[in-house]
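note to self — DONT lose this again. spent like an hour looking for the file last time. sequence + predicted structure for the chain T wanted, 327 res
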Amino acid sequence: MLLDVQNLTKVYRKGVRANDDISLTLDGGEVFGLFGHNGAGKTTLLNQIAGLARPTSGSIRIDGHDPVSDPATARRLCSLQPQAQVPLEGITPRQAIEIMARIRGARQRRARERAAELIAALELEQWADTAGDKLSGGVRRLTAFCMAAAEPGRLVMFDEPTNDVDPVRRRLLWGQIRTLAESGCGVVLVTHNVVEAERSVDRLVVLDRGRVLARGTPAQLRGLHGDRLRLELLTPDSTDAERLADDLSPTGWRAGEAVVNGRRVVVPIEADAAADALTWAQRQRDAARVDEFSVTPTSLEDVYLTLVGANGTDPTPEEDRHASLAA
């Protein structure tokens, strides 16, 4: 087992419990996702695994090594892309990637080759030799990803790697994450982009207020919704979306609470009620209350929003969620 976290708790001053009895395991070759709202405890968890913060209680082992008692070995085994942008003033992306590879033990030729490989894979050639202070946020973010992936440890952790990254290069980045796992690395991924991550993660946990709400494979978590579909409605504006969600309360085909996100309303429905739901949605469109609508299979994003709520205010713990899925 590459990573073993057991009953990990981190309590800050004034009693703020950032992580609350978290347990998880990870093997090499896996991509493991950490999902949750801002403040759910994801970054705190990564910092403890990397040896940058000391747990209040519980244990962490990276390939058998404790990052608290043996931080040097743990840091050698672990690569981390932090959530914050890395400082690149006075240095180019190519130089930054090569330097990080050398720091992590690569020989000069290997560092040059690996930098060129990653720059090509993410289509960064036109910015590779541009000074860091002239780069966009997305290119800086991709450079930070390359720095963590250039000479990775056995465990590689990425904290919001796709922030500010354009859609084309996000797709390329997800491909590189999978390539790292296929090379034998264990990958821990923090992201808010549940839709994209669903195609990349092998297992995940959903965190809220430092606690694990559910865990399992994407298919296992989607199974929490049973034989359901999702009705998605796009309204003219966010006020219309709120009103539409209120009107959904008495409908007999609605299988769960509607979730509003800006102009979008997503409603879980039973599979055998799809025809009734579509008829209702067409009436709303005819009345100009809805611009577009569709019925699709339940996604991991639906499960995530059901578990944490639209604002992360539904902190029901894992054991009360009938979601005791295999770790």
